[in-house]
Amino acid sequence: MRITLSGLPDPVVDTLTGLLGDHRLSSVPGHHPDQPVRPEVTDCDVLVIAPARPADDLALLDAATRGLWHPLTRTTAHRVVLLSSMAVFADVPPGWAVDPEWYPQPGCEPGPLAEYLAELTSREIARTATWRATVVRGPADPATAGAEAIDRLAVGIVEAIDSQPTVPWQPVHAVAPSPAVPGRPEWPPRPGPVTGRTRPRRITVYGAGGPLGVSVLSVTAERDATGNGELELLVTDARPFEELVTAPPQSPTAPRPTEVPAPHRHAQVDVTDPAAVLAAAEGADCLVNCSVVRTDVDLAFRVNTLGAWNIMRAAVHHGIDRVVQSGPTQALEPHPYGHLMDRDVAPSTPPHPADRLYFLTKFLGQEICRLMASQYGIGCPVLLFNQLLTPHNHTRRVAPLAISWRDAGRALLAAARVESLPEPSPVVNIGVDSPHDRYRVQPARELLDWEPLDQLDWGWHA
Hints:
The chain is of the alpha/beta class. The chain has 2 domains: 2-173, 3-Layer(aba) Sandwich (Rossmann fold); 202-460, NAD(P)-binding Rossmann-like Domain (Rossmann fold, 3-Layer(aba) Sandwich). The chain has helices at residues 10-19, 39-42, 57-72, 110-126, 147-162, 211-225, 241-246, 274-281, 297-318, 357-376, 405-417, 442-448, and strands at 2-6, 24-28, 46-49, 79-85, 132-138, 169-173, 202-206, 232-237, 265-268, 286-289, 323-328, 382-385, 387-389, 402-404, 427-429. The strands form 3 sheets. A 7-stranded parallel β-sheet has the order 9-8-7-10-11-12-15, with helices on both faces. Helix 1 (10-19) crosses helix 5 (147-162).
């Protein structure tokens, strides 16, 4: 059997070489996201892989997500073993007997967070892959772990290679039992409500050149015209404004930028540039993330996933306690991994993006927002959209969880202005009521104190 060891620390490789001597072993460095995937990774029977661990925080998160996507979507292996660690439980107080039934609680430090995101990336790709995956959680730093810990980890990897899993993805622990602590362990932290937020006056909108960001500006300009203008927006996009106004629209009826009326301003900001994101957040009371890339693999990870990290880090740096994250509805994927044919689908339904690039990269960014909002007490509602349309120019069938462009902009502004949240980063599906009543949209009304103006009920008329 051809087994490729990718990115494993030397002590682990040395021990595995002794345990797997009857197989054809290849050991290669960890995959760099901007380099071609090595032939030993693409053409093998078993891939044992650990993400690269660069020193820079942003590069570390990139290696754990985009750096896994490329090899995992190209390998011909029938078995994948991902090396992770118990650091994904960094926020669990000592004294608990943590086993694979526990869901990770990594906190926000880049190292544990990167390992958690790597696990999520492999888990979602595994839903539709031809291979089955086992995540082997070992010591936090195998490169410096003792001989006994390395032996235990190597045995766990060998057992994972030899196993016949019945599910696409599963975690196992290859570490010594946790030591007991005197008395009852401290209960793991649970995020509570976010209350007492004052309404913002200065909002920075990232990705404002797209139609969703344009809708936010349009709704704000309408409020200005009626004498209700109390907001100042800094609308930003990776492209210069002159290019945005001449670019073709996302769809024939999607709104497009025309002007940025005073007191609002425009700035060219790439969300993949931490310094630019930080500068654009200075002086703001709230940050709204409308940035998105759907089809370009490398940009999707950089914008949708790492962009969320940069924006949340900017909020922490400047002491901003409001962020609004946007993304696609994660509940409408088809069987067997989604909930398209289910009833009573709520915003809290666990997302299963699988290997759909746009959904996966946005989901990873959404998880970054959830963890950082909980850690730093930031109110960060996550608004998810499915179909956005212009009512009077729409001829296609109205889809589940549809909403008009102007109501989408109104919902984002309502999320920026909400004063209390039941948890730091609640997820809400934004859509109109539908006669089939399959998808829960009422939580958005209750959470945001918002009602759509365009009901779209004609979309289901016979």
